[in-house]
Amino acid sequence: MSAESNPVRLGLVANLGQFSLLVVVNALVGGLLGQERILTAFGEDVFGITSYTTALVFIAVFGAAKAATNFFAGSLCDRYGRKPVLIAGWLVAIPVPLMLMFAPDWSWVIAANVLLGINQGLTWSTTVIMKIDLAGPNRRGLAMGLNEAAGYVAVAATSMATGWLAAEYGWQPGAFSLGAAYVAIALGLSVFAVRETAGHVDLEAESHIGGEHGLSTRQVLARTSLTDPTLSAVSQAGLVNNLNDGLAWGLLPILFAADGLSVADIGLIAAIYPAVWGFGQLATGLVSDRLGRKQFIVWGMLVQAVGLAAFAAADGFTAWVSAAVILGVGTAMVYPILLAAIGDTVHPTWRARAVGVYRLWRDAGFAIGALAAGLLADNYGIPTAITVVAALTAASGIVVALRMKETLRR
């Protein structure tokens, strides 16, 4: 079909088919991650790992690999286009579920998580960038809410399903069989159905107001990380958000297991937090398009701090479910809005790289959080580790309140 008969247009309605397809692809990205949310219980049950620091190494290497890949994903998208980067991410993922299904020791799990980090950095970053491309400036919050909701609802569903599969059929190979199906479906969709969105960037750039055109990658890195008050505030909030998520991912299943919860119950609680987070983003992203970004980020970080403090003080299934809901609400208030704020602030010609830098810092939080939480838990206990991270999360919200400017153009 010619360009004249199929013109490039911006907006969710104008690009509904491709946008919906990318929502499905991102759900599969999240699903592949979801099978890992109770891996610390897997390590303890199958390989007898009792050191918190050792158990959380798999999250640290995942976070480091994903953070580094995020940075390069933005530049690769600008240089080669979005679709080739998306396909490359799914090719990297092919061995991941197989390595978990047949791992003879914990080193295989760590190696699988290096590949998973690369996969997530390439695929999740690219689906974010492509949705921002398609949506244009007017519904950016809604677009990011839909994107992140799809990913984290899939994380929740697959976490619960993995716990059920492990309880019914054992950890290997049954618990990780869903991941192999996710990779096959997503690779097929990415190759045969997803279309390139670079043309939408060119269209938006023609009418974009504000932001400097043509920055180098070094300049983008400096601005997003440090010199621009709004972008740097957003980046540190993303880092702290995933720092506390790394703690929740790694330590909470161990805390629940120590209290005698079954694998199925652990999977259920591990699913509630990303489920509330995922569905909540459908509302927060949309409302932020009307009310603005900053207040959601500030209050969301503070609500997350309350949820973490509740985990430290709580005991028993019901109390932990309540804490998971609070933490999920706080994360939903923050997660898509941070991405929308980046898209609001930067010029379309360097937006992909800015998103990559932001996601570099955000996912570095997984590595920092996993290692810090493991060391604190080994030396002072899990409740102390959770309390320290809760305090850091509250401090991050205060930094946003002091440094960030509202980014939504009314």
Automatic annotation (TrEMBL):
Major facilitator superfamily (MFS) profile domain boundaries = 10-408
Compartments, as annotated in UniProt: Cell membrane
Is Amino-acid biosynthesis given among the entry's keywords? no
The membrane topology of this protein is: Multi-pass membrane protein
Task: Check the record and name the InterPro entries matching this protein.
Answer: MFS, MFS_dom, MFS_trans_sf, MFS_Transporters, Sugar_transporter_CS
Which UniProt keywords are present, listed alphabetically? Cell membrane, Membrane, Transmembrane, Transmembrane helix, Transport
Transmembrane portions of the chain? 12-34, 46-65, 85-102, 108-129, 149-167, 173-194, 296-314, 320-339, 382-402
Is-annotated flag, keyword Transmembrane helix?
yes
Q: Known Pfam families for this protein?
A: MFS_1
- The source organism is Glycomyces rhizosphaerae
Predominant subcellular localization, coarse grouping: membrane
This one is known as MFS transporter
